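Fig. S4 source data, part A: sequence.
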Amino acid sequence: MGSEGRRGPLKIRRALTADAGIVAHIHVESWNVAYRGIMPDEVIARTDLAYRTVFWQERIADGDWPVFLMEEHGKPVAFCQMIPTRDGDDDPKRVGHITSLHVLPHVRGRGHGHALMDHVLAEFRRRGFEAVTLWVLQENWNARRFYEKYGFALDGGTRTYPKTGVPEVRYRIRLSVSP
């Protein structure tokens, strides 16, 4: 995918195992800004680059479920991972799930997340999914506004983020069928 506009030339491609460090960098930078004051400081401090690099190497290695990496002018700025749902109250053959969507803090608000979401939802449609869910920290108002503006709606699902007790809420979007 190529795109022009106020963001400049964008490219979205499937991340390779060699990109794990780049994806980890975007993840850590995003967490450090987006989750400050919501997630306990010690959790943010433990979200280090070495740990996240290993984490993303394993996820990127999954040949069936991609991590998409967005580049602007050849520089990585955002990523998103898609999988079938793991929530017990949904059918993984019909409901997809976005595990992560992170944009570098210095380029937020310029449409990168929207373009990446368009790409990922198109891929879910291509694979025949009817809906997509994602979990977001309950107090992450910036992310919640983004998802709501995009068209996601709360579906009543709640849980706590593992090992933290921080509440999360689930959003869902219904997908139109591709021709």
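Fig. S4 source data, part B ends here. The CA atoms of residues 152 and 173 lie 5 Å apart.
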